[in-house]
Amino acid sequence: MLATLVISMFETIEKLLVLQDRDRKLNRVQQELAHISPEREGLKAKAAATQSQLEAAKNRVKQIESERKRLELEVESKKTQIEKYANQQLQTRKNEEYRALAHEIDGCKADITKIEDKEIELMEQTEAAQKEVARATTEANAAKKLVDDQIGQLNQREENLKKELAELQSGRAELASAVDEVARSRYERLLKSKGDNVVVGVNHGVCGGCHMKLPAQVLVSCRAQKEIVACINCGRILYYTRDMELAAAE
Q1: Would residue 166 count as lying in a domain?
Q2: From residue 42, how far is each of 49, 50, 153, 237 by CA, in Å?
Q3: The model's pTM
Q4: Does residue 236 form part of some domain?
Q5: DSSP type of residue 100
Q6: Is 88 contained in some domain?
Q7: Where are the beta strands (DSSP E) in the chain?
Q8: What is the pLDDT of residues 31-50, one digit of tens each?
Q9: Cα angle vertex 208, ends 203, 211, to 5°?
């Protein structure tokens, strides 16, 4: 009868260990799946950042071109004023008016010179901005290709993990139902609070979960394998096999 009880308890522990192994695999797959979406969003953000840099470079070129056109119109306006003043000079007979108009003409010419200097600066800025657009385009294209490839791999990995998860989940209920109801209930409660490290071995007199020293009576109960033994410190289910050392390390 005692031998039968020992075998039964040993089988219970074995079944709990199998169930725990399944839960660990489930936990691993679920954690990996949980990281997929943030990783994918991070890759998209990276590609979007390089695209934003490209758009900013293009906008810079547009701004410079817009400023150049504005200056060109301003030059044309100054030339029109010069022409107007010159016509007025031809019509006036007063020296003061003629000199005043000449002064206005000189002012317009000076303004044109300043504007043309600005245009030269803008031409140089345009060249630099266009080089930046070329660089940003190359970087954005390379980033997009890399991100597209990585997202494709992530999507495939996600699909594979979902399949693996479904397979693991489909068999868990069967594994759980094979465990003694009392032992299973205790295991399920501990699973919620201790994670997937519920059934732990005893080695050198300490719990394999919390690593705290165990009383001699607990060690004796583990060796006897007549009942489910719990760690007095953390509550985890303890088990012992012949390859473990029950005695505390010196």
Answers
A1: yes
A2: 10, 13, 14, 41
A3: 0.69
A4: no
A5: H
A6: yes
A7: 199-203, 206-207, 229-230, 237-239
A8: 999 999 999 999 999 999 99
A9: 95
